[in-house]
Amino acid sequence: MSEICKNWSQWLKSTRFSYMDETQLSQTMNWLKLVRDIILNNASIKPNDTVIDIGTGTGLLAFGVLERLNEKGKIIFSDKFEDCLQECKKFLATLDIVPQYEFLLSGCEDIKLPKEAVDKALMRSVMVHILDKQVAINEIYRIIKFGGIFSAFEPIINSNTRYYELVTPDDVNDYEDFKRAESELMSDPNDSLTNFNAESLGANLENAGFKNATIDVQESASRYLVKPNTVPTWFDAPPSPGAKSMKEKFLLYFDEAKVNKFIASVDKTLTGKEIDVKSKVALIRAIKD
């Protein structure tokens, strides 16, 4: 198994939440369950459906589907990384259920299924890791039967609260330099995390052939206390395996001493304070007519 495969399962289970304390982690887990239920409800899962969970990861959506199917339906755990599928298999082995599932080792830009193979296609936070969204959405359209539904959730990363919005020029070193760099990084067309928004996703869906697509954009805000060591973790944790951390991205602009000084000043300013952060998400529901 490749190192990136190992890193994906580790990242999904630990790294992506490494900066959170127990309270934040509990809130996030509850939020993920809510997201799961919204995606499944939007898909209108029926007992006899064939459903694919694209980029299943640790199987949050797929296991939810299993609860809604009967013995004639089927869920396909699909992921491009073998270690993610193995994690799901380990958990399935602990359950006493009818084997109404399959595993598909496949990326979402080239899904290894014939056309019109599934009734419903589900996805959670996968497009954010795909550079060419159009190619992936074209594939999703291809594998869904006519009358079928694509239901998904994607975070709109480029709308998140930015570091420079949490501090002032009086708080940190080289404020304007880092503000400029962060603004450029958050609008980079060659970064899958930031090269899209709700409008571009809508265009992708229409171009693929979906005629009845809705994108519900929701903004959430939260307040929490910044604890010691939280800020350095923000800058050091990669957004996905193989991707550059925020610190590494800043190092493309500035030398290490300058970046370290900036991070230290942000850390000093925010640790022990309550901060407000916001983010936007897109809930997608599209029917193939």
Structure notes:
The protein has 289 residues and is an alpha/beta fold. Residues 1-12 have low confidence and may be disordered. Helices cover 40% and strands 22% of the residues. The protein has helices at 3-13, 22-43, 60-66, 82-92, 133-143, 163-166, 175-185, 198-208, 230-236, 246-250, 256-270; strands at 50-54, 74-79, 101-105, 118-124, 144-156, 212-225, 274-287. It has a seven-stranded mixed β-sheet.
Fold topology:
Layout: H1 3-13, H2 22-43, E1 50-54, H3 60-66, E2 74-79, H4 82-92, E3 101-105, E4 118-124, H5 133-143, E5 144-156, H6 163-166, H7 175-185, H8 198-208, E6 212-225, H9 230-236, H10 246-250, H11 256-270, E7 274-287
Parallel strand pairs: 1-2, 1-4, 2-3, 4-5
Antiparallel strand pairs: 5-7, 6-7
Helix pairs in contact: 1-4, 2-3, 5-8, 9-11
* Tally of helical segments: 11
Strand content: 15-25%
DSSP, total strands = 7
Largest sheet: 7 strands, mixed
Mean of all residue-level pLDDT scores = 89
Quaternary structure: single chain
Described by the principal axes of the CA atoms, the overall outline is elongated
Ends apart, CA distance between termini? 40 Å
Which structural class do the helices and strands define?
Answer: alpha/beta
Helix content: 25-40%
Write the H/E string, N to C. HHEHEHEEHEHHHEHHHE
Low-confidence stretches: 1-12
Radius of gyration: 20 Å
Strand arrangement across the biggest beta sheet? 3-2-1-4-5-7-6
